[in-house]
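In this section we turn from sequence analysis to structure. A common task in structural bioinformatics is to predict how a protein folds when a small molecule is present, because the ligand can shape the pocket around it. The inputs are simple: the amino acid sequence and a SMILES string for the ligand, here guanosine-5'-triphosphate. Study the lines below before reading on.
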Amino acid sequence: MSTQQDTIAAISTPPGVGAISIVRISGPESFDIADRVLRCSGPAPSKRQGQTFIRGFVHSEPGDDGKGEREVDEVIMLIYRAPHSYTREDVVEIQGHGGRTAARRVLRTVLEHGARLADAGEFTMRAFLNGRVDLLQAEAVMDVISAKSERAAGAAMDQLAGSLSNWIQSTYNILISTCAELELSLDFDDEGLPGPALDDIDRRITSAVEALESLLGTWDEGHLLREGALVGISGRPNVGKSTLLNLLIGSDRAIVAAVPGTTRDTIEEEVIIKGVPLRIVDTAGLRETDCPVESQGVDRAREIIDRADINLRVVDASEPLLDDEWVRIREMNPAKAVVVFNKIDLGEKVEQGKIPEFTVVRACLLSGEGIDRIRGAIEEKLGFDGDIAAHAVISERHRRVVSLVLDDVRGVQGLLEQRREDLIVPAVTLLRGALDKLGELTGQTYTEELLTNIFSRFCIGK
Ligand SMILES: Nc1nc2c(ncn2[C@@H]2O[C@H](COP(=O)(O)OP(=O)(O)OP(=O)(O)O)[C@@H](O)[C@H]2O)c(=O)[nH]1
Ligand SMILES: [Mg+2]
């Protein structure tokens, strides 16, 4: 049964020119509205079966004088009867001509007949409130839509299919049964729980801790898939930074010239390597300068170096490096940096072996030599290996909640280990708190604020 009283409508297709646009309606009045807006041969929409479609014309209301009724668009109308629909409510989808204007005209007509304009994500929110999907699956809908790569879409589809929900649910089940048993033990008066029973509870708590830890361990990878990684290219002027950007993205995006100080602003481009989106940023050459424009560019470059997940530091290897530059290189975190010794076709005067803690790639970017090794080094630093775990925790919200739950459960573990009767009550209280938090993850418990937070990220019409 629907928990929602009113009927909502929105354009579900993106703005711009296209072959088809879709106006979606959901709620108890959907079929009444459909009857009123559609002219068709045969039975009215409300008399049709679910999962069928009708060809017809959306028409506008006549004025008081009975005149002025107009055809708005020629359409195909799809009928979905509750609960067999996206929202589990009665749903009508009107496929009309593409383009914003035609779709807007249809939407306006539908709104004039009693529907309310849907909020962002409201259809999916109804799917959640009506129990068709849990909160993790609802969130995955938006991840599928905004996935930047095949791999990200694959991980989001797994989450939509319930892989993450199942994982959380099994941990939830372990914790709730343990909690029930501990609560029961409080009724044993003086005796408390027998040793073997406590050993069994310990084992279960430990398995929950392991499950939560492994879930948290997937966050880096999941986060990478979702947000992509920021890869900054930096170095002194004229060393070949823009040449490197162009090679990595496979097009002549940045101007390459023999004049030092060619790039003065940051240039950002996206590429996908092994299914992971990378935002690659070329920056202005690092040097002291009196030019205010270039100096701003250098400030921006330093900002990128601080924020980047991976720093590609390019140096001209055909010249010896100044001490100062070695110092600057060592300021970077070696785990997140790749140093490119470029221009080796002009000779190698740079001292080798000065930075043993760093990954160094020798290259002649002019001819493209070394670019595969640079890509390989990026992949290695980012740790792309094999498949993303099917239950990958892929949002910041999930990571936050899971780590709080983990803290609680570890706390419970610590209390129970002491085998003290008087610590059972605090352990139960902690465990209850952990269960509430886990419930918030799947949406078993939720607040309006949480839902608003999640669904406001969605697009209108989804
Ligand atoms: N010989 C040689 N020249 C190179 C190599 N890589 C780049 N160059 C040349 O070096 C010059 C500078 O290259 P850019 O890619 O513009 O260098 P940059 O670091 O972006 O320079 P700025 O934007 O001025 O900081 C150009 O003339 C490139 O063709 C290389 O491996 N060997
Ligand atoms: Mg440049």
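The mean pLDDT is 90. As an exercise, try to locate the residues that line the guanosine-5'-triphosphate site and compare them with your own expectations.
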